Amino acid sequence: MSDIEKMIGGDYAQLTNTNIRSFGWKGVTVTVKDRQTRRPKTILNDINGIVKAGELLALMGPSGSGKSTLLNVLAHRTSALNASVKAAIYINGSPANPKTFRRVSAYVEQEDALVGALTVRETLNFAARLALPSSVSKLERIQRIEALLTAFGLSGQANNLIGTPIRKGISGGQKRRVSVASQLITSPKLLFLDEPTSGLDSAASFEVISFVKDIAKRHNLIVVASIHQPSTSTFAMFDKLLLLSQGGTAYSGPVSEVQPYFDACGFPIPLYMNPAEFIIDFVNTDFARDRSEVDQQLNMVHSSWHKSRLATATVAELTDEMARNSMDNEVNPAIKDESAGRFAIPLALVHRSFIKSYRDIIAYGIRIAMYMGLAIMMGTVWLRLQPDQNNIQSFINAIFFGGAFMSFMAVAYIPAFLEDRALFIKERANGLYGPTSFLVANFLTGIPYLFLITVLFSVVAYWLSNFRPAAEAFFTWIMWLFLDLLAAESLVVLISSVVPIFVVALAATAFANGLWMCTGGFLVPPHTLNPFWRYVFHYIDYQSYVFQGMMVNEFGHRNYTCAPADTPAGCTCLYTTDLADQCLIDGTAVLKTYGYSVGGTGKWVGIMLGIIVGYRLLGWLVLHFRKN
Predict the structure, then answer these.
(1) What DSSP assignment string belongs to 248-262?
(2) 296: CB partners within 8 A, 6+ apart
(3) E strands of 61-182, at which residues?
(4) Looking at 93-97, 104-108, 278-282, 338-342, which range is the least confident one?
(5) How far apart are CA 372 and CA 385, in angstroms?
């Protein structure tokens, strides 16, 4: 009895495949338009193949041969290919239903899209919470997790972190095993692996493939893996090979028959040479000196394959499977249309994000330290400003600096969001959840941290700068700064969703903040702003409402002293108000120079909330229509 069966009992060995006996494909052809000539270009041409339960198939070929494209077609991941695809894909000889196919299959990406701040056990736990239907109890979920940890030799590393740039975690080979184990949590019968040994040395590659082979043999799974030039020992662990070159089949059949086949074709594999290395180099045309000779050799290889008994046997095997019982009779009764609960997915995502945010200091820890440094700098530069007319402009400058630069420094969130987005793209491709759950969890996770940043910044900067000393004024300042940060982070989410490249997103966010600063009302008062900038940008500029709200909060209910002078009146006021005879300036006079007035706070808050929601909705649209 296997480790999994010992852990969860023989009647609950969910991994074992009992109803899918074969997976086949026929006539897979993929064409795209050449960017230069605009003519159709064939990526894959009439590819056939079949894998039986318990077998491992290696998709091999030189770079550009089409193996990744074929893997995506077989895994029903064609939405991001932007190509014309013709393919007949069968399970048990019957055409595969895409909806059913997703529930019986799993796909492991080439890159390990894992949360570095989680432990190995937590990674599998969240994978289970996101993927398993609500009918699976917590006890059953834990049993599956512990079973997979044991089966993949990860029990000793279960409480170790995956690893972050600051904190070292598990090894590369262990990360690959975690990636595979997290996909097996749903007990798939078909497993697709995209370059599972990429970036690993030969020992780690052998380790990963041996674990996959062990699981496949024990539980009768079907494994299809694209792999680039494996070692001799790793190559020998595969049962079948599909070798591609320039989009055509160079060989398809048992690994054990590779050497006899090429010997019979007149291309013997040298003694003591890795067969995988020889056949990859043999069909590689990228570094050919004599192009015509290599093309002639490649045409001979393709022609030899089509005339071979193995090619005929593959088609015959597919035909025999089609003649047997259909998939609907055997597979569908064992599959229920279930998924994780509507609220369970966002809760799991929020929980995972919170763990990441407090363990990985890059997400919010560094930002908190950065904002505290800014608060100390601001508070000591504008230190204890006295409420007299000589400091009015300094108060205005401090208000602008506090709102605008707090917003600008939200660019520090870009790396953390791009990491979250990469994980979302992978998990959406696996059918776990969509952009709604992702953005809701992202927004809810950020709220407490942004509020904490706001309060810490305000406690230091507000009182050191000596803004209006009233509790109501202090909490109003906090409200505006909090809305400012929410809008700024929502803008970062939108821009990073449109251009998910760090340098480009950074530049675009900086440009947007520069635009909002210019049209916000501080540098040029709104009523004198060029009509184009005022009507096109000023009224949708969230920084303008923050600046306006903070100005009203400071000057709407505060008086400022006038400088003494050698005149009969005794003082000279820069602003004429009804309080001039008392050597005071009513702060509302300052507001009038900007065209502001008290009483509009509720409306401005409503507009700010609308802008925040608008950014999030635009971000949702981008993620909804963009698949990669």
Answers:
(1) EEEEEEEGGGHHHHH
(2) none
(3) 84-91, 94-95, 105-108
(4) 338-342
(5) 20
Neighbour-count burial for 95-117, b at 16+ CB within 10 Å, e otherwise: ebbeebbbbbbbbbbbebbbbbb
Residue closest to 467 by CA, chosen among 545, 384, 587: 384
Q: How much is the pLDDT for 120? A: 93
The whole-angstrom separation of Cα 412 and Cα 392 is 32
Between CA 70 and CA 55 the distance in angstroms is 18
Residue 194's SS3 state is strand
Q: Residue 558: CB partners within 8 Å, gap ≥ 6?
A: 387, 468, 587
d(CA 169, CA 496): 28
pLDDT at 6 over 50: no
Residues facing 253 on adjacent strands: 241
Longest dimension (CA), the chain: 116
Strand partners, 86: 29
Phi-psi region of 566 (alpha: psi -120 to 50; beta: other; left: phi over 0): beta
Average pLDDT on 130-137 reads 83
Q: Specify whether the CB–CB gap between 41 and 82 falls below 8 A.
A: no
What mean pLDDT do residues 107-132 have? 87
What pairing do the DSSP bridges indicate for beta strands 56-60 and 222-226? parallel
| The pLDDT of residue 2 | 46
Label residue 328 by pLDDT band (50, 70, 90).
very low
CB proximity list for 292: less than 8 A, separation 6 or greater: none
Element (H, E) at 584: strand 584-586
pLDDT of residue 363: 66
Rounded to whole angstroms, the Cα distance separating 289 from 120 reads 49
Averaged pLDDT for residues 296-325: 82
Q: Give the model's pLDDT for residue 522.
A: 94
3-state SS class at 133: coil
Which residues are CB-contacts of 347 (< 8 A; sequence separation ≥ 6)? none
CA angle 51, 52, 55 (to 5 degrees): 80
pLDDT score for 403: 93
Tell me what pLDDT residue 459 has: 96
pLDDT at 94: 87
State the Cα–Cα distance between residues 49 and 413, nearest whole angstrom: 46
Q: Which residue has the higher pLDDT, 327 or 261?
A: 261
pLDDT higher than threshold 70 for residue 80: no
Which phi and psi (to 5°) does residue 154 adopt? -110, 5
Distance CA 344, CA 264 (A): 58
| Reported pTM | 0.84
Q: Which residues pair with 101 in a beta bridge?
A: none
The dihedral over CA atoms of 448, 449, 454, 460, expressed in degrees to the nearest 10, equals 120
Residue type, 401: F
- Is pLDDT above 80 for 625? yes
Residue 468's pLDDT is what?
Answer: 94
In angstroms, the CA 318 to CA 50 distance is 7
What is the C-alpha to C-alpha distance for residues 485 and 480, in angstroms, rounded to an integer?
A: 9
Domains and CATH numbers, the chain: 3-325 (3.40.50.300), 344-625 (no CATH)
- CA gap 108, 126 in Å, rounded: 16
Look at residue 307 in the predicted model and tell me its pLDDT: 84
For residue 143, which phi and psi values (nearest 5 degrees)?
Answer: -60, -40
